[in-house]
């Protein structure tokens, strides 16, 4: 059976002989089919799999420290402006704190409602599992958290007994308490804190539990980390970025020695922006089984890269805005429009609907005002070089206009500010080169690079596997007469025409020079896989996520994920008609 998710089907069944359980496609994009061997960390059956380590816990704790320091310094600064009678600065500072926080809390609470509630009168997604050796009966579920209760180490799932009135009452009370707690947490603007703590809890549970529950908690920890990284990315560029420019502009406008509190606020906002970008890239790479994970050394190099480039960019903005306020607003709007059009022209594929994709492109346009953010699969060297050349030119022009308004002969402080902008941008480029030349997951840029596939025994680049997903796509192209006459050499002249609406299987699978994993269940998703650096569909489609968690929890062996590949002829079934 299949589990529908916004038109997509997910089913779990035995892995056929020759299935691509251990392959990770890295070249096919939307047309690639990738199967995750084991957990999302990409570990095959029988291996211990990825483990939640102490440094992962420390990374989450540091993220919480950055979050609290950024919010606390902004609120402290707003209170200071209010006490000093500077109501305009108080209003702007508080606006950049509250408005983005409200937007993010609403989005986080919406995700919670969707994850924790069942549509009234609507059945849950149909789910079935089969053992890899002998087929078992189908098991349906409505909730990934309560549908299956399997004893650890048992070969088959055991359905939950019918609840009694007392247990049903306790369950309702528990659900009510959870709803009240989540409502209170989000009203206090602590939704991200709750998700950070939950990711930390799930990670520790995956470390302490046995093998079966360990991998289940690890999946859930990755899902929670993906949620909080997306929320933090949205919040920082709606709150910390404008807050940084505002406070720097006020510091430049006042002149003299900077006050301690505005300096702390700008520093916290700057660190928050750099940390969030590096954390987002790390979680994204950790979630993709077709990419090598980002090491913590690489993450720290990314933090320093973004820290210095964003510092130079924000300081150039602040210098220009302190003199030319109207022209600065025009420049920001024009730059955002150009960057948004550039992102849309690249045809990104991050979201599940068209309107969500447009909103996402607009947010990426805001990110491009301050720093580089890769949104397109493939080699990004040329695009990144072009972007940084544009940013360097803009920083030089903005700083030059500000410097031209100063007194060259007596104002030595202005020359120091220009040097700070230039040196900060140069340091950012230096750490970017360190990351790409020494710490990139695929290997050093100037030396031999490792393919994106994480399997080292492959003698050739990772491509679409030979496994055929037996469920037909939702829409199939019409087959032309020329394609029917020469269908890959399988039909010769004089061969009788197939009957009307005959379902003919595709070509036999070609051999793959790789040891393929064939044991264990397979979760097949009737969606083409999204290109990196996009999230996989089971990370952004929450209904699909719940279904996969239910299938994974009920399976005695680690399941493998397979996406539909529209570019592989072995997968498609041809529906032919004759006139």
UniProtKB/TrEMBL annotation:
Membrane spanning residue stretches: 58-83, 89-109, 326-346, 358-375, 384-403, 415-438
Chief localisation class: membrane
Recorded GO CC terms: plasma membrane
Topology within the bilayer: Multi-pass membrane protein
Subcellular location: Cell membrane; Membrane
InterPro entries on file: XK-rel, XK-related_scramblase
GO biological process: one example: apoptotic process involved in development
Keywords, in A-Z order: Cell membrane, Membrane, Transmembrane, Transmembrane helix
Composition skew (Low complexity), residue ranges: 1-14
Biased composition (Gly residues): 15-29
Annotated region (Disordered), positions in chain: 1-45, 147-167, 466-510
Recorded family membership: Belongs to the XK family.
UniProt name for this protein: XK-related protein
């Amino acid at each position: 059976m299949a589990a529908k998710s916004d038109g997509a089907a997910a089913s779990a069944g035995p892995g056929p002989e020759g299935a691509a359980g251990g392959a990770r496609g890295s070249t096919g994009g939307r047309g690639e089919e990738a199967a995750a061997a084991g957990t999302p960390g990409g570990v095959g059956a029988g291996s211990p799999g990825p483990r939640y380590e102490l440094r992962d816990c420390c990374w989450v704790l540091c993220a919480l420290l950055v979050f609290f320091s950024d919010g606390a310094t902004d609120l402290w600064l707003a209170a200071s402006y209010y006490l000093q009678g500077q109501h305009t600065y108080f209003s702007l500072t508080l606006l950049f704190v509250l408005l983005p926080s409200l937007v993010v809390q609403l989005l986080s609470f919406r995700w919670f409602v969707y994850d924790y509630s069942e549509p009234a009168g609507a059945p849950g997604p149909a789910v079935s599992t089969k053992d890899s050796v002998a087929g078992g009966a189908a098991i349906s579920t409505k909730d990934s958290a309560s549908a299956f209760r399997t004893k650890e180490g048992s070969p088959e799932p055991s359905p939950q007994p019918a609840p009694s009135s007392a247990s049903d009452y306790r369950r309702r009370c528990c659900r009510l308490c959870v709803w009240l707690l989540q409502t209170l947490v989000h009203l206090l603007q602590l939704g991200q804190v709750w998700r950070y703590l939950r990711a930390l809890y799930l990670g520790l549970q995956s470390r302490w539990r046995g093998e079966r529950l360990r991998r289940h908690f690890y999946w859930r920890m990755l899902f929670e980390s993906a949620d909080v990284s997306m929320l933090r990315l949205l919040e920082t560029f709606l709150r910390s970025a404008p807050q940084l420019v505002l406070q720097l502009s006020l510091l430049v406008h006042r002149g003299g020695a900077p006050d301690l509190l505005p300096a702390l606020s700008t520093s916290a906002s700057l660190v928050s922006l750099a940390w969030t970008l590096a954390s987002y890239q790390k979680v994204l790479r950790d979630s993709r089984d077709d990419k090598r994970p980002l090491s913590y050394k690489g993450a720290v190099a990314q933090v320093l890269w973004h820290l210095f480039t964003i510092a130079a960019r924000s300081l150039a903005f602040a210098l220009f805005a302190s003199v030319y306020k109207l022209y600065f607003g025009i420049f920001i709007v024009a730059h955002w429009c150009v960057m948004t059009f550039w992102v849309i022209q690249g045809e990104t594929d991050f979201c599940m609907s068209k309107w969500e994709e447009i909103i996402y492109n607009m947010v990426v346009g805001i990110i491009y005002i301050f720093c580089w953010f890769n949104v397109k699969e493939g080699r990004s060297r040329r695009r990144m070089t072009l972007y940084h050349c544009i940013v360097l030119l803009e920083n030089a022009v903005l700083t030059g206009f500000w410097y031209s308004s100063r007194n060259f002969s007596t104002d030595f402080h202005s020359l120091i500010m220009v040097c700070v902008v230039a040196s900060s941008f140069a340091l950012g480029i230096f750490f970017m080169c360190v990351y790409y030349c020494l710490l990139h997951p695929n290997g050093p840029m100037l030396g031999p690079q490792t393919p994106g596939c994480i399997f080292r025994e492959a003698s050739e680049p990772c491509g679409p596997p030979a496994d055929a997903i037996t469920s037909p796509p939702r829409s199939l192209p019409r087959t032309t007469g020329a394609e029917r006459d020469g269908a890959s050499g399988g039909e010769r002249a004089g061969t009788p025409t197939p009957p009307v609406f005959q379902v003919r299987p595709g070509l036999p699978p070609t051999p793959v020079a790789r040891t393929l994993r064939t044991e264990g269940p397979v979760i097949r998703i009737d969606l083409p896989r999204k290109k990196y650096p996009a999230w996989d569909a089971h990370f952004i489609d929450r209904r699909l996520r719940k279904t996969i968690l239910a299938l994974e929890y009920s399976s005695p062996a680690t399941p493998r994920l397979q996406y539909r590949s529209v570019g592989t002829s072995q997968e498609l079934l041809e529906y032919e008609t004759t006139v």
